[in-house]
Specification:
alpha/beta, 2 domains, 15 strands
Amino acid sequence: MNTPIDHNTVKSVIDSFKLPDFGKATIREIVAITNKIETLTGEKYIRMEIGVPGLPPSQVGVDAEIAALKNGVAAVYPALDGTPALKNEVSRFIKAFVDLDISPDSIAPVVGSMQGCYASFLLAGQCNPEKDTILFIDPGFPVQKLQLDVLGYKYIAFDAYEFRGEALIRKLESYLSQGNIAAVLYSNPNNPAWICLTDSELKGIGELATKFDAIIIEDLAYFAMDFRKDLSRPFEPPFQVSVGKYTDNYILLISSSKAFSYAGQRIGVAAISDKLYKRHYPALAQRYGIGAFGNVFVNRVLYALSAGTSHSAQYAVAAMFKAASDGKYRFLDEVKTYGKRAAYLKKLFTENGFKIVYDKDLGQDIGDGFYFTIIYPGMTGAQLMEELIYYGISAISLITTGSKQEGLRACTSFVKEAQYEDLAYRLKCFKENNPVK
């Protein structure tokens, strides 16, 4: 079959990785396969497999970090709980864009939301010996389950595809009522489906968290990136919705990677509700000698994991949070680029026989953002992922995200306008070689 990328080369590279199930290939494995094919053929791929920011880093952050380095902070260990400037500005930012009150004392920097998530999992699983399982509202970020494999923790999950609104709350209660759930994790907006949990859904989740004493880990990696609403005005509604309005049992993970395009410095923040931060757990006191959740989170867990977060990067994100809260840095205006790309890319795919998997959000059309999901009639997600490699298009299977639906996750961040024509040609070739029956 004639394909845009040499068939024999692609097959040779895929075979060399000896993957037992190509559909379960990790993001990094697809990256490695694609890199090798690009090197051997000289052909540039349409890279949609990895969620790396495709925009320049915030200049506000760059300037602040350079100034901090010039002032010598690189020679000084950072405080485990963060610089006062960072803690204060994060607290203010959360008030400005979530309309939620969290004191600076309950906020700590982490080495990216990845570390914040790992630390949250680790500690949530130690608070109560009877609660030994983490629950995921899927689909989600595949590496978060890998973290639990590393920890040796139990976890269960369900796909939100058929469970929205009241059905979501009933499904969640069926798990929480069993009494073994330590924490619940979801992303909002969702990676990869881009569904956005509503305020009413979060109210139900929060009430269940309080009723069954479970900690909600709210992953806000794509903070306020539901572009169907204008969430860009600080201290003015509408705000980024959060479970924090409805329970005290929560941890917010806010990343600088996507909203601020500051991924390379590996910094995010964990904002813990004031009541949870101060809450005493006998099991923690027995293990660590101190029982307050926040004290253990910072002075035992984060200390053991990394002994703090990059000192200079803390000044960078403090400056970005401040400028955003002041209304001087409209960070959402910059990342709207992803939404514009998604709208155009979806059009190219659907014009060539593809369908959007997660296409509705409680009756509304799904928003356009960092990710979207696709399927091609007659193919499983694994078959489609492998087949597209021959056409110079890389993406990951939804299976790896915990989804029960067939299809792929496609990321918009690396696809530039200069590649649109090439993508259109490759999709046309794919359709011609794979006619829908």
